[in-house]
Structure formats: structure tokens, C-alpha cells
Amino acid sequence: MKIYTTKNKSPFYTLVCEEIILKDEQNHDDILYLYQHKNAIIIGRNQNIYEEIKLEEVKKENIEIYRRLSGGGAVYHDLGNINFSFITGKQNHSYQKFLEPIIEFFRLLGLKAEFKGRNDLIVNGAKVSGNAQIIYKDKIVHHGTILFNANLAKLAQVLKPNKLKIESKGIKSVRQRVTNILHEMEEQIDDNEFIFRLISFFEKKYKTKSDDVENYFENGISNQENFHQISEFRKSKNWVFGTNPFFSYENTKRTSAGILKVLANIEKNLITKIKFEGDFLSKRSIEEIQVILESKEFSRNSLEKELGNIDNLEEYFGLIPLNEILDTIFGN
């Protein structure tokens, strides 16, 4: 295991580094990458930005918006939030397995932490860490957040709570679902001390020393041929906001494994365009499924056959079962 950190606080640096490392076919090392963002919203790959973010507030607060490669929900990051990425070629994709060392660290701090739901860590019944994954060829990134001393008021100010999620969980606001690690600790330490202890824990656990992520790259990240190209693309409106063509049909459902929204154009009983949105935990690009379904007959039997023939369907829709995907498509 190699451990990297960075002092850069922009997602257009930190997450571009993560992407380049993930796609580096010369790298065969397991990597842990720790980073922070000063003032940013990181939105899930399959989410509709207009439904997730209060854009006027975001503009007023000069908050960066970054659409990540992984699925899951939108999160607000400030310097009270610490982020981690495990990049590995190992085949065990279990969220719980990746989070075992984080739970171990929390318990050393005297916290009763546990894995809950699809992708969360909780302390005393409240969420302190959300996680997501992305698969690229034979490698995977598992990345997550740690709420240490984040501005929870700002989080509620800039993110829109999803009504389906609130109704299903019986909660009144975004802020009631989360807490800060600092508020749950008996010992009061500052952000820098927490980060120091986190890095020291991993250095001891993996018997290595951390290094600046710049040193991963032979000539520095700024000299990477594709760094600026990727960073500029991730900033582009086409990537951040996506294209929003007119859809003649849509349906949204709270499934057993996340919110799924389907938008489609149907002509002469054929799918001419289809799009999936939501906070489901996809590990691969959902666009691949959309391409497969275009031009197919718009019937349950037809789509059940098409989707049923995809062996790794869970890598696109997370843990949403096939019958619930079909129920959402056909409004059942």
C-alpha cells in the first residue's frame, strides 16, 4: 500500500489526480489517497444537477461543482471534511470491506462506529461518512467522506433534500441525518490534529510513509500530458450540467437500493432515447445501458430480456434488482 496526500484543495486537482491514477495501466500498487476540498459540491455521476443543488446559493457562495465518475448522492465539502480514496486491483468490491480500516480508526478515537445501509458509516445513529465506487477495467476506486467538523448549516443551505428519501426515512431535513465526528468525541481536537492522527494510523497500519501525490508522477502532475485536458473537461458545462433533451415520458421510484428516475422518448413502441438518473450506486457508466436499450421494443418482456442478459447489471444499477428497474421503467 502506498499513501498519498495533497495540499491542493480544489476537486479539479484532487479528483483529476485520482482519475489519472485509476487509469494508469503502469500502476499495480494499492493506493490510499487523502485530500480535502475548501468549498465544493461533489455530485454523483447519474444525478440531475437542477434537482440536487440550490444553484443560486451555490453561485452566491462561490462553490465549485464537480461531477464525479462514481454514482451515489451529492455531498458538500469544506475543510471540516476529509476525503479518502482506495485505488486497487483487488476483486473484493464490498463497501464494508473497504471501510473496515476507517471503522478501526474511529474506534481508536473512542467512537462506536458501524456500517449501515448501502454505503454509510454511522456514529450514535447519525451518518459521518458516505461512500461510492467506480470500476475502470480491472481496477476500482472506493472513495468516501469523513465529516469531522464540517459546516452542516451550509450543507443544508446548498443541497436540496430529496422528498422521496425524506418520506421513506421519516426525516425532516438534510441536517438531521448527519453529524460531525468532533461532536461525538470526548477529546476535543482540531482539524489538523485529526488529519495527523488519521495519516499516522494508516502509516502504522500499512507500514509505510505518506508522500505528496505530486511525487506519484515522474515529472509532476502539471507536466502530465492529459492533466489539463481532463481538468478542463470536468469543468465544462457539458460534463457538469449534462445535456437535457426533451423527454416525453418519465417516472421516479424509491427502490430498495436508492432513487431511480427514468426518462424516455418512445416512438412507434420503440425506445428512441432513454436516460437513467438517481443516487443509485453505479460503478460503471450508465450510458452503456442506455445505448443498449435504444431502438429496443418498449415492452416489459423485451427489456427484461435485454437487461437480464447483462451479467454484471449490479455494476450499473447498484443493488437495485431487475424487477424494480422494470417497475420504474413501466411505472408499476
From TrEMBL:
The keyword Manganese does not apply. One of its GO terms (biological process) is protein lipoylation. Coiled coil: none annotated. CDD domains: LplA. Its EC number is 6.3.1.20. It is an enzyme of class 6 (ligase). Gene3D superfamilies: Bira Bifunctional Protein, Domain 2, CO dehydrogenase flavoprotein, C-terminal domain. Keywords: ATP-binding, Ligase, Nucleotide-binding. SUPFAM superfamilies: Class II aaRS and biotin synthetases, SufE/NifU. This is lipoate--protein ligase. It comes from Mesomycoplasma flocculare ATCC 27399. The lineage of its organism: Bacteria, Bacillati, Mycoplasmatota, Mycoplasmoidales, Metamycoplasmataceae. The gene is lplA.
